[in-house]
Design brief:
Fumarate Reductase Iron-sulfur Protein, Chain B, domain 2, single chain, FAD/NAD(P)-binding domain, 5-stranded parallel beta sheet, 3 domains, alpha/beta
Amino acid sequence: MDAAEMLFENNPLSVICSLVCDHEKQCEGHCIRGIKGSPISIGAIENYISDSCFDRIALKREPKNGMKVGVIGSGPAGITIAILLASRGYMVTVFEVKDKIGGIMRYGIPEFRLPKSILDRYYKRMRELGILFRPNFAIGGSLSIQDLFKDGYKSVFIGTGAWRPRHLNIPGESFGNVHYAINYLNNPDVYELGNDVAIIGAGNSAMDVARTAIRHGSRNVTIYVRRDSCSASADELQYAQLDGVRFEYNKAPTRITDDGLYICDTHQDENGHTVLDEATAKFVPASTIIISVSQVPQDRLVNRDKELQLNEKGTLKVDQNGETTMPGVFASGDVVTGAATVVAAVAYSKKIADDMDRYMQSLPKDGQ
């Protein structure tokens, strides 16, 4: 139990990170044992300890300090901020546009990688901390961030993630046989992909799409990779191969038709940039094309609250303390960094929680 409490204190999402994070590039990749042999299975150990004790660990909370905090979004960043600030005595309300918490973890990671029941357990424990939830509610619609401040919230956190898919800018991308990975993974059951599926992309999301498509009956699933290797983790790549996914490297689409797509060869120039050899384009029949080339944040909040500004990458502009251009409003996770990992969102959010705490403690007390 002591080990579980230490893990939770260091990383409130340790149960989740132990399942979905790229351990070979993080904890296990830095294990000294791995120099001469196999690294210690840190992820498996973390999962056993965290998962078996999560429902029994003592949740420590300081006395309520009377200050309200609004958390917009309940993905990895929002959950982390909510737990940390609630444990410090803040009255936290989470605003979530969907009906259940989890964000990209629930609606973008397949059940076979991250069981939804884990997120339901988090919801229960967060309620035990006194955290309140407003599901099916979008800040930026009927209420703005300014409305939260008018109601007495001392600080607001934005953790709305990156939900707008990047597009390829090729002809045919609007056709009915084309889907984006983030939309497909949201609810695969409503899609009829057919037997021949072409996936454009090379990250973990592309692997999730491919493995999900096979589990839903597609027989010929091919991932087209622009370079000579995938950006997905070695484990996820291997799992996809074991499931029967085919890979075509140094290939890229040039246009999409009603019956498939044209694929050409690629090569890297002297600067390492990918160059398409469009003269080599050949038609590949496919019943469905799924585009999985990352996501960027939506702009609903920025359009409603004009004080919020974006940077040149299209993500929320923040200073070194995670504070946006709107005073008292902080942000972290994918809405700041672009699509990244769960553990990266947690690590950054731990720092932002400290920054928000310092900010609110420095405010004049009510009545002064």
